[in-house]
Design a protein that fits this description.
Phage tail protein beta-alpha-beta fold; 19-stranded mixed sheet; three-stranded mixed sheet; 26% helix
C-alpha cells in the first residue's frame, strides 16, 4: 500500500470515519511489521505539530504521557507505538490537535466567530442520472457506489438500480462520493463535480470518462485498454496510475497532478510529483507537493497556498457558502498548518484569522472577508 493511502487511513482513523472496508485495511496495517516505520513517522509528525501545545488544558496524566512521547522522540529512542498504544495515541491526538489549533496557536486577539452562525461541513451527497434520464439521489449514509455492466450497488453490496448505458454521478456543493468503475478503477469525486461514463466502460478499445470539477483516480492496470479522462480541453491517457484532476469552471487553469506511474496529457508526458497547468492552449509543468494537492481526498485543508481567493473557493465549495470580498480583503495569505474537513467552518476560518491579516463575518451561508 502506498504512503498516501496509509496517510488517508490514518486521518480517517483519527476522525473516526473509517468505513468497514477501511477499518479492515487499517487493522492489517497495524499488524504489519513492514509498515511500522511509516506509521511511527505519521505519529512523530503529529507530536511535532503538538510540540507548542498548551499542556495546562490537559490532565496531569495526559500531559505526562505527551512529554514522555516527545522526549523519547528527541532522544532518538525507538517507540513501538503500533499496535500496543495505537488507541491511546489516537485518542490523545484528537485532544492535542484541538488544543494546538484552537487554544494555543490562535492569538488572543483573534475575534470569535459566533457559534450560532457556524456552518457544518460537507458530507457524502450525490445523485446519479441514468441513460433513460431518471435521476436517483444516492444515500448519504453510504460513502460510495460500485458500477458494473448491468447494475449499480452501494459499496456494502446493497442494490441501487439495474441500469446500462451512459451514467453521470454528480456531487453538489458540500458533497463528495466514491465510485468504483466496472474495471476496478476507484474515483473520489470532490464537491460540485460530475463524472460521466458508460456502465461497461470499455468503448472502442479504451476506457473513457468525462470529468467536470475535481476527482482523484486510482486507475486499474490494463495494458491493452488505456484509461482516458476528458476535461475542459484536455485529454489524459493512462494505463494504470494514481492522479488528481482539478477542472472547475471558476478556476483559471486545469490542474493535473501525478502521484505515481505516468500519464499523457495531450502530447505531454507527466512524471510523479509533477503537475500540469492548462490555460487555453498553454500547457506548463511544475514540481509540486502532492500532499497539498490531494489534501481534500484525505479529508484535510492544508494551508500552503498564498492566493486567498483560491483557498476561499475550496472552502466555499465544501461548505456551500457564498464569499463576499470587502475592498480591504488581502489578496495573499499563507496561514500554514492544516485542519480536518470534518470540522465546522469556524475552525477553518479561525486558523486563517490567527495571522492577524484577515477577518471573516459569517451571516448564515454568506461570509464577508475583510482585513
Amino acid at each position: 500500500m502506498d504512503q498516501n493511502n496509509i496517510k488517508y487511513l490514518h486521518q480517517q482513523y483519527l476522525n473516526d470515519t473509517l468505513t468497514e472496508a477501511e477499518s479492515a485495511d487499517w487493522e492489517r496495517l497495524l499488524n504489519d511489521p513492514a509498515q511500522e516505520e511509516v506509521l511511527k513517522s505519521l505519529m512523530a509528525m503529529t507530536w511535532q505539530e503538538m510540540r507548542s501545545a498548551d499542556l495546562k488544558d490537559m490532565s496531569a496524566d495526559q500531559a505526562d504521557l505527551m512529554e514522555r512521547f516527545i522526549t523519547a522522540q528527541d532522544q532518538g529512542r525507538t517507540i513501538r507505538l503500533w499496535p500496543r498504544i495505537a488507541m491511546v495515541a489516537a485518542a490523545l491526538a484528537l485532544i492535542f490537535v484541538g488544543v494546538y489549533f484552537f487554544k494555543s496557536v490562535l492569538q488572543p486577539e483573534v475575534k470569535n466567530i459566533v457559534a450560532r452562525n457556524d456552518v457544518s461541513p460537507g458530507s457524502n451527497k450525490a445523485t446519479i442520472r441514468l441513460a433513460d434520464g431518471k435521476t436517483i439521489s444516492l444515500s448519504g449514509s453510504k460513502s460510495g457506489v460500485v458500477v458494473d455492466r448491468s447494475k449499480i450497488a452501494y459499496n456494502d453490496g446493497s442494490l441501487v438500480q439495474h441500469s446500462i448505458g451512459v451514467q453521470t454521478i454528480s456531487t453538489p456543493r458540500g458533497g463528495t462520493y466514491q465510485i468504483t468503475l466496472s474495471d476496478g478503477t476507484r474515483v473520489w469525486l470532490n464537491a460540485a463535480s460530475s463524472l460521466t461514463y458508460v456502465a461497461g466502460l470499455n468503448e472502442k478499445g479504451e476506457r473513457s470518462v468525462k470529468l467536470n470539477g475535481e476527482a482523484y483516480f486510482e486507475v486499474a492496470k490494463d495494458k491493452i485498454h488505456p484509461f482516458v479522462v476528458e476535461s475542459r480541453g484536455q485529454r489524459v491517457e493512462v494505463l494504470g496510475t494514481h492522479f488528481n484532476i482539478s477542472s472547475y469552471e471558476d478556476e483559471s487553469v486545469v490542474k493535473t497532478t501525478l502521484l505515481e506511474g505516468s500519464v499523457k496529457i495531450n502530447d505531454l508526458i507527466l512524471k510523479p510529483n509533477e503537475q500540469s497547468l492548462l490555460s487555453g492552449n498553454d500547457l506548463k509543468v511544475r514540481q509540486v507537493d502532492t500532499e497539498n494537492e490531494i489534501a481534500w481526498k484525505n479529508g484535510e485543508f492544508i494551508f500552503k497556498e498564498d492566493d486567498l481567493r483560491a483557498t476561499m473557493r475550496k472552502i466555499a465549495r465544501w461548505y456551500d457558502v457564498e464569499i463576499i470580498y470587502d475592498a480591504s480583503a488581502p489578496a495573499v495569505l499563507t496561514p500554514g498548518g492544516w485542519v480536518s474537513r470534518s470540522k465546522n467552518i469556524s475552525a477553518v476560518l479561525k486558523i486563517m484569522e490567527a495571522t492577524g491579516k484577515v477577518h471573516f463575518k459569517v451571516e448564515g451561508r454568506r461570509i464577508t472577508v475583510t482585513k
